Predict the structure.
Amino acid sequence: MPWNTLFDLFIVFAQASLLALGGGTAVIGELQNESVGEYHWLTGQQFVDIFAITQATPGPSMLIVSLIGYWAMAQHFPHDPSMAFCAGLLGMFVSTTATFLPSSLLAYYVGRWWEHFHGSNWREPIEKGLSAVTIGLLFASAVIVSNEAATSLIPWRAWTIILVSGVLLAFTKVNPLLLMAVAGLLGWLGYLAPVVNQLVPAVTH
Amino acid sequence: MDQPGQPPAAPPVPAKPPAVDDDPPPPAVTLGELAIAFTKMSSMSFGGGLTAWARTVLVEERKWLTEEQFLRSLAVVQVLPGPNTIKLAVYVGAHLRGPLGALAAVLGLITMPMAIVLLLGVIYFHSGRIVWLENILQGLGVCAAGMAFSLALKLFAKHLKDPLFVSFGLLSFVLIAFAHLKMLPTVVGLGIISVLFYRNKQEILPKPAPLTQDPPLPPPAPGP
């Protein structure tokens, strides 16, 4: 059992969770850098795929860490499906706990002592100050994930969809599920993939 | 009606926001009920909108919180790192049933989504190449990346008129995306500086007149 992987999962996700200001999106870039670039738990394509899956499913998008933890462990047992599943579950449990525990503890203790902070002069500067810095995280995360998503696709088509859906979701009342359906359809039709991918699929990855 | 010789009735003013001590005591709620309520919220929120469902379930249906308490909960936890839904579950669960309540609420919230995500993940990782599925996922992937952009754009657009916000936002983006600095220390350092700047700005500007102060009553008219 790759125990050091479990240890790494815990450390990386506990630290990264502190960056999740305003939600999971701010930390997605860091998660990609660590999971793909640093620890090689996933390939870039796998990361983008599970990012898509966890965005499309109900629940916090930070559940992506559950799948990262699952695969980080399960991939060590390519010939033993039941062992892979058990190890995967362990990885999933560790990564999910590591991600949600710090912020939950903060929410618990800050919540309990809120009467003491209520009406403090520091509340607004803290909210606004952190909010401003979060913007950098959000844009950086979006760019990091988009770069990876566009890697094996026709760049201008991928980026067009990325930016158009970004603007539509930000400034119109379009239904997110509808956008996902359209994007999924375009992907299925092969609109995004380079022609060589469609003709010779085994060449990619 | 005003009687002669009596001070006029005070004009209606907006009430001060109730002090925390005035909140009604938390109603008796079992852990099971907590878990079920949060499971319901979670299952309703396909495609987003969990905060709205949380409000519907907690304030309107179960009446465990007043509207005021709910909004305050959101305001408190928003500043902290972490997914808002989890933080809200911890805060509300703790308010109603202490640490066990927090745990029950969180478990109620994430058990079903985690099961779904696990199922999809296992299928994804353990199946061989399915080209049409990969194609669809690629489409969904770029859409999801677009979602990330939309959050950034929304937040940025909200604060365009705030030069301090724009400056620190751009600075943090440049430092993180281009200078390749380690994210956590950069965010902590820049965050502290940003908060201090905002605090400074607070002191320089004159405090606006408090909206909820009762206007001074006029001196009583001379009695008979």
